[in-house]
Amino acid sequence: xxxxxxVGVGMNKWGELWGTSLRDIFVEAALKAMDDAGVDRIDxxxxxxxxxxxxxxxxxxxxxxxxxxxxxPIPAVRVESACASxxxxxxxxxxxxxxxxxxxxMVSGIEKMLDxxxxxxxxxxxxxxxxxxECYNGATFPGLYAMIANAYQKKHRIAAERFxxxxxxxxxxxxxxxxxxxxxxxxxxxxxxxxxxxxxxxDPLRLYDCSPITDGAxxxxxxxxxxxxxxxxxxxxxxxxxxxxxxxTIALHDREDLTWLRSTEVAARQAYRMANVEPTQVDxxxxxxxxxxxxICVTEALGFFAAGKGGEAAMAGDTALKGxxxxxxxxxxxxxxxxxGATGIAQxxxxxxxxxxxxxxxxxxxxxxxxxxxxxxxxxxxxxHILKAL
Amino acid sequence: xxxxxxVGVGMNKWGELWGTSLRDIFVEAALKAMDDAGVDRIDxxxxxxxxxxxxxxxxxxxxxxxxxxxxxPIPAVRVESACASxxxxxxxxxxxxxxxxxxxxMVSGIEKMLDxxxxxxxxxxxxxxxxxxECYNGATFPGLYAMIANAYQKKHRIAAERFxxxxxxxxxxxxxxxxxxxxxxxxxxxxxxxxxxxxxxxDPLRLYDCSPITDGAxxxxxxxxxxxxxxxxxxxxxxxxxxxxxxxTIALHDREDLTWLRSTEVAARQAYRMANVEPTQVDxxxxxxxxxxxxICVTEALGFFAAGKGGEAAMAGDTALKGxxxxxxxxxxxxxxxxxGATGIAQxxxxxxxxxxxxxxxxxxxxxxxxxxxxxxxxxxxxxHILKAL
Lengths: 390, 390
Fold this sequence. Notes:
The structure is a homodimer. With about 400 residues, chain A is of the alpha/beta class. Chain A has 14 helices and eleven strands.
């Protein structure tokens, strides 16, 4: 098995990109990653995307994007695991390089979500839940995560007002980080009061507890570590030292414990074992904060904090940029935006910038080992990667 | 790199399965493959599916199916490359086993196409073409393949009537084979006159030149060859000895030569090289006959026949079950049906049955090396696998 390095990363400025098509957004991000690595061709392409069929009426996406990037006849394939599609694309590309099939492999993610109206986007996103048992009965993701939030508050016996504060601290912290990220969709700083008084979406989740609808893409270039040492000297070396992936019941109601993200726990355990790293050794992380409650549950399933203590840690500032374990230095899904298929790759971009010491104003003080956790649906799938600065 | 064996295969009876849901169709095929191998668990799952979002409103498919197969928390991911999704799922599963990530890996394909009406199915399928430049201008796949057919007839200066005969021979041959396949959707034998007098769809392609709309699934179990030799002794051994994948411009109009399937040529070259096999050494093949003209062009791109001679070979009976190079002994997409994501895996099932000598009435007389070619759109992607009886 060959060791794998990340030698280039790129993304476009995320947002509501009415004037730019799916293929142009991709090409912009892909060319930035190729420029960053200093390559003018790739050997194979993996594209993470959740639902180009429902969002823009285009399947067969990897071939289209290989074509528009001028890279035919390279092998190209799309990878889907709902909102974990980007992380899964990285995992497939890592397999490709580790196996020795190809040397210069692009892993990428994209979603163009604004070309349908709000109801269309809600429908498309809901297809990541169980259509026959959850969606049919009217559940959409804000509702499902609100159920997780209510179960969490009840299980851990947290007073309603304190719990509301915990959730708000996650949103405020991620917007504070996103304020420093020029590629983030919503760079506005928020106050605790902004979050606590925002429009109710699904009790207790309010507007600023939810990640937005976003158009965006991100890409990364992988190659064997040996080759990276010889040829890619533009940047400090970054290696992928652990990968893990797992599933859980797709329907939330089938789980023993709504508040425990088993797929994240299992995927993380695999990644920690491969990387030979303990949770305490992880310096910083990008995690899947599709809703504020998600970040709290994820930081527990990753072993950063004990069950029921993730919200307290956020309130104490432990996960802030200057805290003990910075989480979502990029702004996370909350502030940076959440073009679902692209999110997992943009997490990798943030890890790489931090590990290189190139994260500018949002540089974490200690960044030698970083972790990315990407999740599909209400946790029906999860993928975890650990990257290290060499 | 570990050598990889196929130790189990299964599919359901394909057709218009109004009474069975997507998840139930999958579980039926998956359990048959597990029974065939003699395993009660799998380590990871790859699902080829083109558009569950547009066909049944369900993305996040691999997690759903891992759940319904009772296999959580194994890693599971969906792979999409339009009608080549099944072949691409096999390729990802092969990478997984070859790398040593997992030992017992299920590769599968599925599509539930009948739950939308005819216009809905035509729209969903057309998303495998270039939405902005082909579909927007009214092109759908029968039209695109009709353009290939007309270009082929003109380029190779074939008289219209003789060309019509060549196409008809492909349909008649595949239905003769499908008549012997109990899992095929349309087992009726056809005559040349049936095909030549059928309803016109897109000149020169008539009804029986086109593959149908189908509900169906197929699955296969992969494992390392060493493990297969020790533990899987129910059936003769079958190994995957070559894999290749490639892309071409997604839009037909961007190609230099409409009649030459470059992605198939490039993918086949990779697979031949890895397998150390010449086209003449391939005993039989399953190829992507979404339309009769496709089978003709594919057999040329694979190097079985010279350019312009594929139709003549079909007329001469070379590709018939008793011919020199049997093609689509299963009945092909034409007769067996074409649930798009499942097709590439069902091709592998047919190869395995033939290589084991378990294909019953449709057993080819010589079956030591078999090739499967699976194609997306009008050839925007292609994946080729070579399997061998050991």
